[in-house]
Structure to design on (243 residues):
């Protein structure tokens, strides 16, 4: 009789596991992601035909992702202003690129001085529509950061800063991407959740930082603070080649 009960419970447990959505990730113990140091030392695993002659190890390279999903509504206006405001927290020699979840690349990597001129008109036509494809945005930002790293010969600090007001359309894929970034690159990930309380795939204390704000009116200050402050999570926070 005990065997029969066990056989019934096993498929029920499996059904419950595979029915889990993005909200259920935090229900499981935080998995350990061990850095692959040879991969990190070799990052970005790409050559650049015109690398910087004297790359700056103190330079910060920021890829900022703007949430332009339909749920943002009228909050997209202060959110766009916040992205422009974030440039004030960067040094003139830093590099920045801006992406939107649905629109894609808005501003390719450039120094902050040039970005102050180019970003406002680039953001002007951005509206709130579409879903929340965070995984695609993270992958695109990762590739952009890798190209920058090849030019700078991996010197500097590489950061992926996301803004979002909701759950990802593809939570499991996003979870896998975040873990792969932590395992194989020195890229730091920070997320600003707009009105998000509780669990989120990007709320991974050992791999990312996650800040919560009440609404988009607070996004400018949150972005500036995120840019200005170093990471506090227990992940890779600096990069130096061994040997």
């Amino acid at each position: 009789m005990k065997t029969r009960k066990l056989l019934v419970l096993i498929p029920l447990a499996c059904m419950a596991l595979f029915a889990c959505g993005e909200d259920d990730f935090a229900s499981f113990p935080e998995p350990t992601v061990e850095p692959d140091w040879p991969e990190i030392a070799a990052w970005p695993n790409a050559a650049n035909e015109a690398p910087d002659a004297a790359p700056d190890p103190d330079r910060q390279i920021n890829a900022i992702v703007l949430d332009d999903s339909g749920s943002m509504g009228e909050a997209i206006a202060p959110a766009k202003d916040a992205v422009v405001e974030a440039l004030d927290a960067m040094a003139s020699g830093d590099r920045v690129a801006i992406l939107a979840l649905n629109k894609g690349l808005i501003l390719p990597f450039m120094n902050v001085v040039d970005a102050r001129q180019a970003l406002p008109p680039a953001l002007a036509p951005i509206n709130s529509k579409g879903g929340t494809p965070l995984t695609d945005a993270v992958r695109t930002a990762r590739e952009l950061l890798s190209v920058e790293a090849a030019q700078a010969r991996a010197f500097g600090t590489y950061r992926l800063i996301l803004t979002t007001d909701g759950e990802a359309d593809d939570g499991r894929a996003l979870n896998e991407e975040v873990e792969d970034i932590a395992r194989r690159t020195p890229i730091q990930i920070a997320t600003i959740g707009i009105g998000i309380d509780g669990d989120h795939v990007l709320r991974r204390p050992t791999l990312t930082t996650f800040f919560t704000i009440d609404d988009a009116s607070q996004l400018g200050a949150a972005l500036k603070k995120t840019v200005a402050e170093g990471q506090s999570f227990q992940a890779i926070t600096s990069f130096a080649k061994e040997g």
